[in-house]
Design goal:
alpha/beta, globular, single chain, Rossmann fold, 6-stranded mixed beta sheet, 255 residues
Length: 255
């Protein structure tokens, strides 16, 4: 049996009278990168927040690392969030702390990082890995959106998590920085093989990263499988979505 790190079982979620997710089921295996795709408003980011307990499902079950977390309270989810962490669109950095201090924050109080020297060494290592060491003494307000996300990834790695969730990591950044961020995520995938879930509408990023694709349409799973299977799909909606970025050849309607 496959080792599933994340699982949705018939999960539904509504806000007021608006249904966002309808009986959604999928799984993410340990060590793989799954990409959640779809147009705006189909429940991609909501799915991430449900996985880590920032939102709670109306119906269905959610499992994380083999544990049924459905109905868990905030204190219980605090334990899971040390094992699986999220990189938010905003970066969610502390405005009053420098880049280095932000990355050091998760290390405070840990038994293996008792000295300032050890913390400094680890922070320097992470900043260099994410190629943002030159910004160590800057405040988040001095950084571009893309750089903030790179710093947020460095801070997430400081937790030494089993899994990382990324919410639209290349949205609202210029093409060069989007390519840089996507290359960093790919580097982390190939180097550490951490379980990852990436929410994106960026088809080029998805093709680069995905071991498995979860495609949401109108709050339901329209496709669940590998990227190669997605490219072979004859579903008109899926083909049109990929054709918009010329990731698959158009069908020959004259054949």
């Amino acid at each position: 049996m496959a080792n599933h790190y994340f699982e949705f079982h018939d999960v539904s979620k509504s806000f007021d009278d608006k249904a966002v997710l309808h009986s959604v089921s999928f799984f993410v295996e340990q060590g793989e990168t799954a990409v959640i795709m779809g147009r705006s408003g189909v429940g991609k980011s909501v799915s991430l927040k449900l996985l880590l307990g920032f939102l709670h499902p109306d119906e269905g079950r959610i499992l994380v690392a083999g544990e049924d977390v459905t109905g868990w309270n905030e204190a219980q989810f605090a334990k899971i969030r040390r094992r699986a962490t999220m990189v938010f669109q905003s970066g969610a950095l502390f405005d009053s702390l420098t880049v280095a201090e932000n990355v050091a924050f998760p290390l405070a109080g840990r038994e293996d990082f008792k000295t300032e020297e050890k913390i400094g060494e680890r922070v320097a290592e992470l900043l260099e890995m994410l190629e943002v060491q030159q910004f160590a003494d800057r405040l988040p307000s001095d950084l571009s959106t893309g750089t903030k996300r790179a710093v947020a990834i460095a801070r997430a790695l400081a937790e030494e998590p089993e899994a990382i969730l990324y919410d639209e990591p290349t949205t609202m950044v210029d093409p060069l920085m989007a390519a840089h961020v996507s290359n960093l995520i790919l580097k982390l995938k190939t180097t550490f093989r951490k379980t990852s879930v990436v929410v994106t509408h960026d088809t080029h990023l998805a093709k680069k990263l995905a071991d498995r694709v979860i495609f949401l349409q109108e709050g339901r799973v329209a496709f669940f499988g590998t990227w190669a299977e997605l490219e072979r799909s004859q579903d008109p909606f899926l083909r049109n979505f990929l054709l918009e970025d010329e990731l698959i050849p158009a069908l020959d309607m004259t054949a």
